[in-house]
From TrEMBL:
<keyword id="KW-0378">Hydrolase</keyword>
<dbReference type="InterPro" id="IPR037144">
    <property type="entry name" value="Peptidase_M1_pepN_C_sf"/>
</dbReference>
<dbReference type="InterPro" id="IPR045357">
    <property type="entry name" value="Aminopeptidase_N-like_N"/>
</dbReference>
<dbReference type="InterPro" id="IPR042097">
    <property type="entry name" value="Aminopeptidase_N-like_N_sf"/>
</dbReference>
<dbReference type="Pfam" id="PF17432">
    <property type="entry name" value="DUF3458_C"/>
</dbReference>
<dbReference type="InterPro" id="IPR001930">
    <property type="entry name" value="Peptidase_M1"/>
</dbReference>
<feature type="domain" description="Peptidase M1 membrane alanine aminopeptidase">
    <location>
        <begin position="224"/>
        <end position="434"/>
    </location>
</feature>
<dbReference type="Pfam" id="PF17900">
    <property type="entry name" value="Peptidase_M1_N"/>
</dbReference>
<comment type="similarity">
    <text>Belongs to the peptidase M1 family.</text>
</comment>
<dbReference type="InterPro" id="IPR035414">
    <property type="entry name" value="Peptidase_M1_pepN_Ig-like"/>
</dbReference>
<feature type="domain" description="Aminopeptidase N-like N-terminal">
    <location>
        <begin position="40"/>
        <end position="184"/>
    </location>
</feature>
<keyword id="KW-0479">Metal-binding</keyword>
<keyword id="KW-0031">Aminopeptidase</keyword>
<keyword id="KW-0645">Protease</keyword>
<dbReference type="Pfam" id="PF01433">
    <property type="entry name" value="Peptidase_M1"/>
</dbReference>
<keyword id="KW-0862">Zinc</keyword>
<dbReference type="InterPro" id="IPR038438">
    <property type="entry name" value="PepN_Ig-like_sf"/>
</dbReference>
């Protein structure tokens, strides 16, 4: 397969100003006629005689140029129109079979609903086109269908006409006034009900809001609608950005490869990110719905109005929009929890990516299949990069930068450099070195050491940075890293900070500009030996090493005024002692949990000033993904044994605390999705989980009681997770009862599959294999596949890596089977095998064997080939 390189970018030789589509939908096919106004691009480098369009998996019916049959030649992925004039009208007719399209890209059917997914390169499966984001056109879409088959006909923009046709058919015409790239095109048709509402923009324009769902699901749309209105208001308040069409529509679809898609005026969502009521959705679902609705809505400006020049610039829209949705989530609830969540996600998914065979810069240099680059690096690390600019510029100058970005580039397809230029020009802050964050892959290591000179009342902080080699990038340059720090006195109070050379102290948190392999920062007038609070707010996506004693970490856990740093101190301490225990276990020594840690957790549980969510975060031990990143060679059994040991000790020694937390947070009244109520439920289920660690009779009884009395899905899922882990008759009974109750609810059934696949105890692989044959399993539904196979391979390291390679073999089989009809999903499943270098020699051999088996398969998709072959390199 061909590698596409960023450096090879050239402007398109032709531009397409308008596209008039006529899409006729039938039970077993769709006919598409596309009429395009084409002209040569004055900015093009080359002047080819032929126009070469992209196209895939369609039957070509006809091609005409200015009304006459045109000389043309089709290959499986292109259509060349011979010797075209400078300006012309091109009309192309194609026929497709949406009902047979299991790739869920282009035009496909999700049960009886026709729907499209065009990002990144799906439009070329609907009609032949210059399917690249820098070709922006104005679209008109006329859809016709049998009324009984598809009573609702939707596309981008505003509805301009609708009516009846002969033979029980009807039509609708949609006009999108905004030029857009083809990846933002959307069409949806089928039997749908809708929830309607209105939003008045701050300039007084009335916008109709509609959420379309399967008949019967309208009562589950209220939370999504509220989230949408909050997002619209927030974007006006915080960024001054208003919605620009008369209608904003969301459609919920059951079969969807990703979370959601920001098509102009017609967002298409995975139904799990729309539908919610307390009986069927968890707090986490409510949170995800709010965040993703916001994310897709925010794309209207960061992505749609200003889009990407080419797919290497994907983070231009995704990193920026993730940052915006993170800011929104922080404003909707607790900012501290939101930041802890961001960092947990980054460490669990992006840090391993940055340390593995698929490591790539936020702005990649090359790809074989662009769908493989919708990654944690492009999204989450991309958001951290924009957040660092926010930190370096400060909120006012950052906002000025955003304003300038829109002023300069509204209606254009631009690059990450254009974004950085706007930030630089609006603020006067030099971002030359900072731009390396877009270019260099890998997570920087930061070593910070402090020395106090009592006589000089001076505290010297020495910061060393280094960046390991990553595939294709052997030599790295030092980065510009904003390091946010504070100094605490002996009573835990923030000291005012004055750097050498400054006339007076300025604030108690300072952002240090780290730019060199070694930087030294001197704080003056420091009255006593301080405890340093480092990387406040997680000011940069780095791995921090600082020689801090366990006492210093517990001190920070108790006193740091920065909630992130306070939580982080506990994680660092937890990680340190778990890793010490792993080493002890390996050396045949006992695994000892120091009292100091138990005391610190006790103090956290007793601290009346802390909110419940924060306490739940702070008493949750570091996860295996994070711990694994800290080890030279991942020792899964060791980490698991040590983590369980710590849990056991905390469970026993703090039994009275867990019991009182459990009893005190019972809650009453109807379900509310509020920060307080979510915190209460989280803390209670965390206590339940600690109380269940000994697996004894009392624990089983309590868990059964919790599960059976659950008043909402959040509690049911928490109870079921604990019971599944406890196993035995109670676990089986709960799983059976849950299935019986929810077998008609696909989104709830996904949870049932997921909980079993993630259970770290028992013979999970055997169970997962049986579940693949369960009547409720659907290998063509991405949600079901991710909830079973994905959850097992990515969410259950203990079981995936057990069993002498049986888990690896199972995953490879599933990848190969899925690749035959849905390469995007298959490639996503494959990722865990890529981390083979991080394990012992035995596992390395077994994992590589499966990767080699995959690569050797005939007819492999580009998607799977790229991940599997790069993983072996
Ligand atoms: N921009 C959207 C990306 C997306 C996507 C990409 C490839 C294949 C299927 C897809 N569905 C959605 C989602 C977003 O980041 O907002
Ligand atoms: Zn996005």
């Amino acid at each position: 397969p061909r590698t596409i390189r960023r450096d090879d970018y050239t402007p398109p030789p032709f531009l397409i100003d308008t596209v008039d589509l006529v899409v006729e939908l039938f039970a077993d096919s769709a006919k598409v006629v596309s009429r395009m106004a084409v002209r040569r691009n004055p900015a093009a480098v080359a002047k080819p005689a032929d126009l070469v369009l992209d196209g895939k998996k369609m039957d070509l019916l006809s091609v005409s140029l200015d009304g006459r049959a045109a000389a043309h030649e089709a290959t499986p992925e292109t259509l060349a129109i011979r010797a075209v004039p400078d300006r012309f009208t091109l009309e192309i007719a194609t026929r497709l079979r949406p009902q047979d399209n299991a790739e869920l890209t282009g035009l496909y059917k999700s049960r009886d609903i026709f729907c499209t997914q065009c990002e990144a390169e799906g439009f070329r499966r609907i009609t032949y086109f210059l399917d690249r984001p820098d070709v922006m056109a104005r679209y008109t879409t006329r859809i016709t269908a049998e009324k009984s088959l598809a009573p609702v006909l939707l596309s981008n923009g505003n509805l301009v006409e609708r009516g009846e046709l002969d033979g029980g058919r009807h039509f609708a015409v949609w006009e999108d006034p905004f030029p857009k790239p083809s990846y933002l095109f959307a069409l949806v048709a089928g039997p749908l009900d809708c929830l309607e509402d209105r939003f008045t923009t701050r300039s007084g324009r009335e916008v109709t809001l509609r959420i379309y769902v399967r008949p019967g699901d309208v009562p589950r749309c209220d939370h999504a609608m509220e989230s949408l209105k909050k997002s619209m208001k927030w974007d006006e308040d915080v960024y001054g950005l208003e919605y620009d069409l008369d209608t904003f529509m969301i459609v919920a679809i059951d079969d969807f490869n990703m979370g959601a898609m920001e098509n102009k005026g017609l967002n298409v969502f995975n139904s799990k990110l729309v539908l919610a009521n307390p009986e069927t959705a968890t707090d986490l679902d409510y949170h995800s719905i709010e965040a993703v609705i916001a994310h897709e809505y925010f794309h209207n400006w960061t992505g749609n109005r200003v889009t990407c020049r080419d797919w290497f610039q994907l983070s231009l829209k995704e990193g920026l929009t993730v940052l915006r949705d993170q800011q929104f989530s922080a404003d909707m609830g607790s900012a501290a929890d939101a930041r802890i969540d961001d960092v947990r996600r980054l460490r669990a998914a992006q840090f391993p990516e940055d340390a593995g065979p698929m490591a790539h810069p936020v702005r990649p240099d090359s790809y074989i299949e662009i769908n493989n680059f919708y990654t944690a690096t492009v999204y989450q690390k991309g958001a951290e990069v924009v957040r660092m600019m926010h930190t370096l510029l400060g909120p006012e100058r950052f906002r000025k930068g955003m304003d300038l970005y829109f002023q300069r580039h509204d209606g254009q397809a631009v690059t990450c450099d254009d974004f950085a230029n706007a930030m630089e020009d609006a603020s006067g802050v030099d971002l030359a070195q900072f731009r390396l964050w877009y270019a260099q892959a890998g997570t920087p290591d930061l070593k910070v050491e402090g020395r106090y000179d009592a006589a000089a009342r001076r505290y010297t902080m020495t910061v060393d940075q280094s960046l390991r080699r990553t595939p294709g990038q052997p030599d790295k340059k030092p980065m510009h890293i904003p390091l946010s720090v504070g100094l605490l006195d002996g009573a835990g109070r923030d000291l005012p900070l004055k750097l050498a050379g400054e006339a007076a102290a300025g604030g108690t948190t300072r952002v240090l500009d780290v730019r060199n392999p070694r930087d030294v920062f001197v704080f003056e007038d420091v009255p006593e030996k301080p405890v340093a609070s480092l990387l406040r707010g997680f000011s940069a996506p780095v791995k921090l090493q600082a020689p801090r004693s366990e006492e210093e970490l517990t001190f920070l856990m108790a006193h740091d005024s920065d909630p992130f740093a306070r939580w982080e101190a506990g994680q660092q301490l937890g990680a340190r002692l778990i890793l010490d225990m792993v080493a002890a276990r390996k050396a045949g020594k006992p695994m000892v949990v120091p009292d100091l840690f138990v005391d610190a957790i006790r103090r956290t549980l007793d601290d009346q000033r802390l909110d419940r969510s924060f306490i739940a975060d702070a008493v949750t031990l570091p996860g295996l993904a994070f711990l694994g990143e800290l080890m030279p060679e991942i020792d899964i059994e060791g980490m698991w044994a040590a983590q369980q040991r710590v849990r056991g000790v905390l469970s026993q020694q703090l039994a009275d605390r867990w019991s009182s937390v459990y009893d005190a947070n019972h809650g009453s009244g109807p379900y509310r999705f509020s920060p307080e109520e979510v915190g209460r439920r989280r803390l209670r289920s965390t206590a339940l989980s600690y109380l269940s660690t000994d697996k004894g009779e009392a624990a089983r009884r309590r868990a059964v009681e919790y599960f059976e009395n659950a008043k909402n899905m959040t509690e049911q899922v928490a109870g079921l997770g604990v019971l599944a882990e406890l196993g035995g008759a109670e676990g089986d009974a709960a799983l059976g009862a849950f299935h019986e109750r929810w077998k008609g609810e696909p989104l709830v059934l996904d949870k049932w599959f997921g909980i079993q696949a993630r259970t770290p105890t028992g013979d999970t692989l055997q169970r997962v294999k049986q579940l693949v044959d369960h009547p409720s399993y659907d290998r063509k539904n991405p949600n079901r596949v991710y909830s079973l196979i994905g959850a097992f391979a990515s969410g259950n390291p203990v079981q995936f890596h057990a069993g002498g390679g049986a888990g690896y073999r199972f995953l490879a089989d599933q990848v190969l089977a899925t690749d035959r009809f849905n390469p995007q999903v298959a490639a996503r499943l494959l990722a865990p095998l890529g981390s083979w270098r991080r394990y012992d020699a035995g596992r390395q051999t077994l994992m590589k064997r499966e990767l080699a088996r995959i690569v050797a398969e005939k007819g492999l998709s580009r998607d799977v080939f790229e991940i599997a072959s790069k993983s072996l390199d």
